[in-house]
Amino acid sequence: MRRRGNADNPARRADARHSSLGRAPRSGLGEWPTLIASLSLLLASEVQAMESTGSSWSTLSGKTVGLGQTVILGQAGWPGFSATLLHGLAPALDLGAKLTFNYGEEGIVTQIVPGIKVQAVARVTFFDNEKLNLGMRFEPGPLVYFTSFETTAGLALPVGLQLGISLSSAFLLSVGVDAPVFRTFGAAGGWVFPILFGGGLEYFVAPDLAATFKVEIGPAVDTRGFRPISNLALEGLFGIAYRL
């Protein structure tokens, strides 16, 4: 006689069949929600890290283009259009050159005069923690303007201070003050002292390509003539910057 605990017991085999029929087959589908959630958290953390770091170079704010990097910036608008070449000689220092063709005399809205300007460019970063940056720009060089009466030569000595605010890895906002001071020579020459306030925005389409916009406005004290007068000066420029 067979014992109930034996493996050949019919009742035992019936219980085993019933247990296997009631149990759903195991598969890996139950692990997918956990895997998707983990990947989503990892992706979100990577995006947040990218957003917090901000852009690695700039042409409008107080951040330089970086050690050993070279950037070309083209701008057009009022008072003209220009091409700038910048090279990073140190992490916090850029040197370069700028060629400008203007149809408004140094941004003075009442002076519709064509001219040419050739400048050296120096940019220095004082502070940069990826979220905020502060820097200074100096662009001295000769200028020539052509009127219907005479050709006027002079010297541009613009200086500016910029504060950069990283909005994300793609957008960099800058605010600041510029003093594009210049002097013209000759019997009717003299100093002109513009003080412009405003800002700019850089949109980094790709790591090496940025679209830029800059607008500044303010008074310009003109000492030429019998007595000083005050004019309105304005700069509004769209641009494209490319890192080589």
Which terms summarize this structure?
twelve-stranded antiparallel sheet, elongated, mainly beta, 244 residues, Lipocalin, 2 helices, 14% helix, disordered N terminus
CATH topology-level fold name: Lipocalin
Task: Write down the secondary-structure element order.
Answer: HHEEEEEEEEEEEE
Measured by DSSP, the beta-strand proportion falls in: over 45%
Reading off the top of the CATH hierarchy, the class is best stated as Mainly Beta
The oligomeric state is: single chain
What does the main sheet amount to?
12 strands, antiparallel
Helix content range: 10-25%
Number of distinct helices: 2
The N- and C-terminal alpha carbons lie at a distance of 92 Å
Q: Into how many domains do the coordinates divide?
A: 1
Shape: elongated
Average the pLDDT over all residues and give the rounded result. 85
> What is the fourth-level CATH superfamily?
OMPT-like
Structural class: mainly beta
**Which value, in Å, is the CA radius of gyration?**
33 Å
> Stretches where pLDDT falls below 50 for ≥5 residues?
1-7, 18-29, 49-53
Record field, number of beta strands: 12
CATH architecture: Beta Barrel
Helix and strand layout, with pairings?
Layout: H1 10-22, H2 32-53, E1 70-78, E2 80-90, E3 93-102, E4 115-128, E5 132-138, E6 141-146, E7 151-166, E8 171-184, E9 190-194, E10 196-206, E11 209-222, E12 229-243
Antiparallel strand pairs: 1-2, 1-12, 2-3, 3-4, 4-5, 4-6, 5-7, 6-7, 7-8, 8-9, 8-10, 9-11, 10-11, 11-12
